[in-house]
Amino acid sequence: MGTSSEVSKLHFLLFPFMAHGHMIPTLDMAKLFATKGAKSTILTTPLNSKLFFEKPIKSFNQENPGLEDISIEILNFPCTELGLPEGCENSDFIFSSPDLAKGDLSQKFLLAMKYFEEPLEKVLETTKPDCLVGNMFFPWATKVAEKFGVPRLVFHGTGCFSICASHCIRLHKPYENVASSSELFVIPDLPGDVVITEEQVIEKEEESVMGKFMKGIRESERESFGVLVNSFYELEPDYSDFLKRFVAKRAWLIGPLSLGNRKFEEKAGRGKKASIDEHECLKWLDSKKCESVVYLSFGTMSSFNNEQLIEIAAGLEMSGHDFVWVVNKNGSQGEKEEWLPEGFEEKTKGKGLIIRGWAPQVLILDHQALGGFVTHCGWNSLLEGVAAGLPMVTWPVGAEQFYNEKLVTQVLKTGVSVGVKKLMQVVGDFVSREKVERAVKEVMVGEERRKRAKEFAEMAKNAVKEGGSSEIELNRLMEELKLVKL
Ligand code: UDP
User: Which Pfam family would be a valid example here (predicted)?
Assistant: First the structure.
């Protein structure tokens, strides 16, 4: 056994899924662990290390000499041997390539993660961490960790509400008792009488390849040490309790993780390099009135077609509100932009800012000029919007985003739905300009909604402070892990 200080010092091995929505909170988590005196090693591939981790980790270690270092351990990922295109080390590769069959390839990419099983064994054997935080998409990781006596925590990347809603739907299959796929039903057992339709849920195909994969995920989760959630108790108390009682063996809510980024550079440097000068962007926002600008972003995986983008542009113009709109329309740069109505930028000059590519999202959301957030309801974005105190227009596209929408519109009551009917996974169900106009206008004027959104932001900030709910849960987790170590 080591000295008492070695024993009390924990070492986390963090293994994120290779997508922005997982890499970004993983880095935030490593920083959080460092502030608690724990060492973290992030396990990732060469390209992802360069894209996400090298620079910010170097700065973090240099600027915090008193804290435990964060380090990176590289694993190769032989894309072509696994039947993937060369360089396909991140789901962004799939979603930003216009000519790829995104649905098929993303499934193949997900299943290819199994490749890491053996390399992970070797890393665990040599590194001997005190805990493995492995992404949900690595169901085999629980067994591998067990072999070396390492407790495995599961990180879903989403909140308690969607994990619980999905659990209840899988268990009761309520969609089997509706007359049509667009008929609303109440999610059985789930607190709050939340309603949804069959065409918005993803759990229907249990016998498909993905259905079986998801089943494996749930089994591995039950056998794991517990679940780590990027959320905070006050945001979803009923669902946090439900998760701990009925779904996961144990769970710890330790977020919002994005709030650990306090410095300008940290906020500006999250994810990719921004496609706009951050200072210019803030200067533009500085020139706007308080709470007057609406921000639109649809995350890293949704890709709308030209017809939909034209509709968004027209709806925005009709709403009359100032806006910042992030369009990750890769592949069309330098070409004639057929996704913008003729003369749109001239007409909206001074009123609108279009960011083509990557936006410094947290910097923008935190600006006082922001008055509303049109979001695809990816969990990171949603929580960043909550932490910024913004009312939202919900525009879910795929994955668990429809559940996240219901949390915002039916439980928190801080959002307005744009009215998307069905889950489409990548491309998005069509929404007319009139719907965009209506939702943007509505979200910008609702005072009650705004007041509630600000209250949640206050709670979020308190949760991560000393003595706050997330801080307490993290302390508890670390104490438990220290006991296991002993
Ligand atoms: N993000 C960003 N700039 C962009 C687009 C996304 O900083 O232009 C960040 C955003 O702040 C969030 C993450 O990327 O932290 C996206 O995760 P989310 O869960 O919201 O959506 P996903 O892309 O996984 O669907």
Answer: UDPGT
Q: Is the CB of 378 under 6 A from ligand 1?
A: yes
* Average pLDDT, 10 consecutive residues per value, the chain (486 residues): 62 96 96 96 96 94 93 96 91 74 80 95 96 95 95 96 95 93 96 96 81 87 94 98 94 97 91 92 97 96 88 96 88 66 89 95 97 98 98 94 98 97 80 97 95 98 98 97 92
Closest CA to 217 of 161, 148, 170: 170
Give residue 342 CA to ligand 1 midpoint distance, Å: 29
Contact 257, 32 (CB under 8 A): yes
With 0-12 / 13-18 / 19 or more C-beta atoms within 10 angstroms meaning exposed / middle / buried, residue 283 is exposed
**Residue indicated by tokens 């890393």:** 123
Residue 27 Cβ contacting ligand 1 at under 6 Å: no
Question: Quick one: which H or E segment has residue 294?
Answer: strand 293-297
What's the CA gap between 218 and 222, in Å, rounded? 6
Encoding tokens for residue 470? 């997330």
Beta carbons within 10 angstroms of residue 139's beta carbon: 24
Q: What is the ipTM of this complex?
A: 0.99
Task: Please work out, in degrees rounded to the nearest 5, the angle formed at the alpha carbon of residue 123 by the alpha carbons of 247 and 131.
Answer: 35
The whole-model pTM stands at 0.95
DSSP 425-454: TTS-----HHHHHHHHHHHHH-HHHHHHHH
Distance, CA of 448 to CA of 282 (rounded, Å): 27
Distance from C-alpha of 318 to C-alpha of 437, rounded to nearest angstrom: 6
Tell me the C-alpha distance between 261 and 362, whole Å. Answer: 9
Ligand 1 atom at minimum distance from 326 CA: 8
Cβ atoms of 201 and 402 closer than 8 Å: yes
Q: Is 32 in the pocket of ligand 1 (CB under 6 A)?
A: no
Question: Which among 221, 259, 250 has a CA at the least distance from the CA of 25?
Answer: 259
Contact 177, 157 (CB under 8 A): no
Instruction: Determine the residue of 162, 266, 300 to mutate for testing ligand 1's pocket, defined as the one with the most ligand atoms within 8 A of the Cβ atom.
Output: 300
Residue 264: partners with Cβ closer than 8 Å, 6 or more residues away: 278, 363
